[in-house]
């Protein structure tokens, strides 16, 4: 088992490295190509930021698949299954449409049609749902048109859920990375824990998706230097949907009967993670809830479901008073709690400690939601151990307190005596010497 783990780590590292290294040149290309739209009413960033980050993420996807194809243990995924080729073809199509949308702003119906076509391309190559485990009944096989329709619907819903949640710096990439990590742990357990080879493609897809997100996140964290755009959000949404479809619809619960004591018990044993992975996925429960709420909200107002607004969950967190970074971390927390809690419960569903831990962490999350204006301030002795923003917050608070005290006393602050011309003084300001009383003879418009 150690050899496959090393090969997965190698695939992950290559995907991370390629995505990270490509993002810088892609940013320069996006600026040169003019893929920097103006600030819209629903945007939370203040300066035009280049898009097209999905180009680097697609490069990471291709690199990860190429490396895995040349590894001894992972090469069997390409030899025994056509799913990697199906994923690559569907991803290439949706990525191309996303690139065009990042540059030319395509119509929402055109993008929806492209999503359905991309899902159909994967279905035609064998990446589809074959059966569904139903509690109390067992495995229910699907007809071809039922499986194809369910697959297309799952792909389209997942793509739009990820696209809708892509509203803050690092939010979509981080949440999908959390979902991919949970999906990888579950798929790896099914493959190597039970010896079911049909879970191998899902395990590989999840590992590559983790690498795509991890490689892009350093460039996308607040303040973001580049956005993934629709070329990235639709791409990672499709890869996540393909991973879930490959795992849920291709792995036969009958193969677990030998380990769980029968088909019905096997279905119940996998139920905590299987059923939510169908419609919808618990690993993206937060984006899925945001998608459903957005559709209901816009339809109720008589608007199109594709009309943009500022009513998403992350917008509401900002309205509550949370900062940009804290809103993202809160969304990370809830996504991780739901995803990893589901995986842990699927492994030990009879353990009461897991339920208690999930309940305790949920209480912590609710507490964070109720404290939007709490600003952590590090003591002076810990300034060297905390990020600069916490040190600056302390200094800003002390300066504000001193200013308020002076205003209350009615006394003017003592002027700062300059030491010499050109020497930096308080707060980085330049001390002015005697020559400063002469007017500036530089021409208007001259640069400093």
Report on this structure:
The chain has 448 residues and is mostly helical. It contains 16 helices and two strands. It has helices at 2-33, 54-69, 75-80, 83-104, 108-124, 144-165, 171-194, 200-220, 229-250, 257-260, 263-274, 285-300, 313-320, 324-347, 352-369, 388-409, and strands at 131-134, 138-141. Helix 2 packs antiparallel against helix 4 and helix 7 (171-194) runs antiparallel to helix 8 (200-220). The longest helix has 32 residues, at 2-33.
Gist of the model:
The chain is an all-alpha fold.
Mean pLDDT: 77
Number of helices: 16
Helical content (DSSP H or I, runs of 4+): 55-70%
Distance between the termini: 63 Å
Give a topology summary.
Layout lengths: L1 H32 L20 H16 L5 H6 L2 H22 L3 H17 L6 E4 L3 E4 L2 H22 L5 H24 L5 H21 L8 H22 L6 H4 L2 H12 L10 H16 L12 H8 L3 H24 L4 H18 L18 H22 L39
Antiparallel strand pairs: 1-2
Helix pairs in contact: 1-2, 1-8, 2-4, 2-8, 2-9, 4-5, 4-9, 5-6, 6-9, 6-12, 7-8, 7-9, 7-14, 8-9, 11-14, 14-15
Considering the chains and any ligands shown, give keywords for the structure.
single chain; 448 residues; mainly alpha; two-stranded antiparallel ribbon; 16 helices; disordered C terminus
């Amino acid at each position: 088992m150690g050899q496959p783990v090393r090969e997965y780590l190698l695939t992950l590292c290559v995907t991370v490295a390629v995505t990270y290294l490509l993002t810088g040149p892609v940013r320069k290309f996006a600026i040169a190509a003019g893929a920097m739209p103006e600030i819209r009413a629903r945007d939370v960033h203040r300066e035009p930021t280049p898009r097209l980050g999905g180009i680097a993420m697609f490069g990471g996807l291709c690199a990860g698949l190429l490396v895995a194809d040349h590894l001894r243990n992972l090469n069997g995924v390409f030899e025994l299954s056509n799913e990697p080729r199906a994923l690559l073809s569907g991803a290439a199509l949706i990525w191309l449409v996303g690139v065009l949308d990042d540059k030319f702003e395509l119509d929402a119906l055109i993008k929806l049609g492209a999503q359905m076509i991309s899902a159909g391309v994967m279905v035609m190559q064998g990446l589809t749902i074959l059966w569904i485990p139903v509690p109390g009944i067992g495995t229910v096989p699907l007809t071809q048109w039922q499986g194809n329709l369910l697959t297309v619907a799952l792909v389209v819903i997942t793509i739009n859920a990820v696209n809708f949640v892509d509203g803050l710096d690092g939010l979509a990439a981080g949440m999908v990375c959390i979902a991919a990590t949970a999906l990888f742990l579950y798929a790896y357990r099914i493959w190597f824990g039970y010896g079911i080879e049909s879970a191998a493609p899902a395990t590989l897809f999840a590992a590559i998706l983790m690498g795509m997100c991890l490689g892009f996140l350093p460039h996308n964290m607040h303040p973001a230097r580049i956005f993934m755009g629709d070329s990235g959000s639709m791409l990672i949404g499709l890869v996540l949907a393909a991973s879930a479809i490959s795992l849920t619809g291709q792995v036969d619960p009958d193969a677990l009967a030998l380990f769980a004591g029968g088909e019905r018990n096997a279905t119940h044993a996998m139920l905590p993670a299987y059923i939510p992975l169908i419609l919808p996925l618990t690993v993206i429960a937060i984006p899925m809830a945001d998608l459903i709420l957005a559709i209901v909200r816009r339809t109720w107002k008589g608007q199109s479901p594709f009309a943009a607004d500022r009513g998403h969950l992350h917008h509401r967190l900002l309205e509550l008073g949370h900062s940009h970074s804290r809103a993202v971390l809160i969304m990370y927390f809830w996504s991780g709690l739901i995803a990893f809690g589901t995986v842990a419960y699927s492994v030990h569903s009879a353990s009461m400690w897991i339920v208690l831990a999930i309940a305790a962490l949920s209480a912590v999350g609710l507490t964070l939601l109720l404290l939007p204006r709490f600003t952590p301030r590090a003591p002076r002795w810990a300034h060297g151990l905390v990020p600069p923003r916490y040190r600056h917050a302390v200094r800003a608070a002390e300066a504000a307190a001193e200013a308020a005290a002076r205003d209350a006393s009615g006394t003017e602050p003592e002027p700062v005596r300059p030491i010499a011309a050109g020497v930096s003084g308080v707060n980085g300001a330049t001390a002015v010497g005697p020559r400063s009383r002469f007017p500036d003879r530089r021409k208007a418009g001259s640069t400093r």
